Amino acid sequence: MAKLRYILIVVIAVFLSACSTTKYLGQGQKLYTGAEIKITDKQNSKKGDIGPITDDLASLLRPAPNSTILGMRYKLWIYDKTRTNKVKGLKHYLNTHLGEPPVLASSVDLIKNAIILQNRLQNKGYFLAQVNGDTVSKKNSKLAKAVYTIQTGPAYHYRQIGFPTDKDDLDTAVAGTSKESLLKVGDRYDLDVIKNERIRIDAKLKERGFFYFSPDNLIMRYDSTKADHTIDMFVKVKETTPDQARWIYSIRNIYVYPRYSLRDTSLKLDSAQHYAWYNVIDPRKTVRPFIFKNTIMLHPNDIYNRTEHNNSLNRFIELGPFSFVKNRFEDVTPDSPKLDIYYFLTQAKRKSLTAEIVARQTSANYDGTQFNLTFRNKNAFKGGELFTLNFFTSTDKQFGKYNNGFNVFQFGVQPSIVWPRIVGPVDIKTNNAYIPKTILTTGYTLIDRTKLYRLNSFNLAFGYQWKPNLHKQHMLNLLEFSYVDAEHVSQLYQDSIRKTRNPTLTHVINNQFTFGPSYSYTFDNSTEEFRTNSIYYMGKVSSSASLVGIATGADTLSGKVKKLFGTPFNQYLKFENDLRYFHKLWPGGKIASRMLVDVGVPYGNSTILPYSQQFFIGGPNSLRGFQARSIGPGSYYPAASVTNGTQFLPDESGDIKLEANIEYRQKLFSIVEGALFSDAGNIWLMRSHYGLPGAAFSKHFLNQMAVDAGAGLRFDLSVLILRTDFGFPLIKPRSTNTGIVDGVDYTNSGWHGSNMVFNLAIGYPF
What we know:
This protein is α+β, with helices and mostly antiparallel strands. It contains 14 helices and 29 strands. The strands form five sheets. The chain has a 16-stranded antiparallel beta sheet with strand order 12-13-14-15-16-17-18-19-20-23-24-25-26-27-28-29. A five-stranded mixed beta sheet has the order 8-9-7-11-10, covered by helices on one side. The chain has a three-stranded mixed beta sheet with strand order 1-3-2. Helix 3 (about 75-80) packs antiparallel against helix 4 (about 90-100). The longest helix has 19 residues, at about 1-20.
């Protein structure tokens, strides 16, 4: 009965919506509800072609009917309910920004739409297509739709495809592209494919030196008089094609102007400084000439290649010191076709100083602010080096029943240098649009946990970043160094360790000394909005002290703890995997999912990962129904003896992390997007540790997974996405029953306080 009641409510709501959005129509007016396309001779088309053809034709029809959700014309309803003569105020805003005026059947031009559909069908190979349009409305109804009756006629297919057979350079080059032709014998005639074929041939010829050639120099001739509705297609070079378009051009000289401005009218070739294979005109010596050695892809006597030229333009921008690039080709053909290339570079502002104040709130009940002061020099040593010096300070206060009063203060300095080339023993060569980079980062951070302890953190990393193409990126760090030293550990914290014997509390303040290489690979095509399915993957492997540990015979389990510079070093292998999959359901609707599989293997000089390298779970970008860092490891939860012995609950961390997330995202209106989500996961330790029962990874790990669900809103503010999520747990790893949360009551404030988690964040969680 309850289900039937809900169904009736929905049906009544839809019915009332249909009525309420037509009562404002004038005498004789009818609301346009859309169009129906009827193909009466489907036997002339393949079964799989009917759907795409119908969808394609429907997209051409104008006007579009009023927007609907579940059959309800919500925008038209808003428009009717907010009618006003005022030009300001809330009603006016809702009426003009969220409302939508009625689309009347009288505004539909049936004849024009029929002509458009018929032309489209002919362009798709249905040369004999006929289209008729009519308006259909029920008696005494204020609703009307358009019906287009279509006879497609037979589709014409290619019997043969011909390319030029003459032996001059241009005809030979055009014929040489035939193996990759978009035109295939047996395919249906399609004008869009023909246009793309001309563009494809032009692109191929631009790689072979035909600088002045254009798609307009090609003509596609076809003969449709053949039997069985087939046609012969012939790709021809127009006889009127000029000589310049038939010549193969090569490069003579290359000139670069690193300090160009619109006031410059002279080429100043007499002041050119020749370096390697190019010439630099830079009287003020703003850059060193070698800066372009990794940028200019074309060389003298090379055949002109548009891809290499475009890659050069992109690399000029990637260098950093330049904001705009203008190029010019000069035809200097004395005896053979030659080009001189001029690159005019407009310099970006070299030095900058920026300051920002950030306010933040996390699901761990921290509210705080951070102040950043950043200095940048985009041409620090006149070789395109980017030098960055960042100072930051932050303070976070925690409210709520956990950790109240244990605030966090941080201060840090982070200098870094990025070279737009490879510096060092590694030789990485790429010939695409992206410059390989050498990156050196260093930093010091002071972390002060009020009433607890103070940590001094030092780090350094040196490595290389390069991109084989738009979607792939490699990052190889020859060295990642980190040293964390605890000082000023309070008596309260020491008493907590002694009374509770909680090994997690001790692990936080242990000195951490890690050093070693790392490598990461990233693939990402999720930024391409035209894709129905897209993925993001990041895999990383890192290690610490592997060779040193082997050389010294480090073995903690055997009592052989080894030190370097008087400090025990950490030894581990660490593997991280982040896979995300996105699927478009319809315009504005998307499924987003993510899976994390992270494993750290401590060995030799370590039995557990250093605290700074461990994994955490929970919070606004993880399991959103749980407080940040409050889950695990495994089914472990501090016993009453632990919580009674200290006022501080440590952040839970582990050596292994498994997490899966799924989220349905739907654009609602204007800048607002809604989401429904569910998350699952946990962290574990690699080995059992005294005082942490249930924390080690075992074959029962699936029974220790935490699960949550929730809903949220996203606000697209152009410069950023503001996100609000409300999550609540469904399964808690430490539950004594089946794990399902009992007594769900959204109206009970006590239930909200103990289960509902509010997350405020910037950007999508993944």
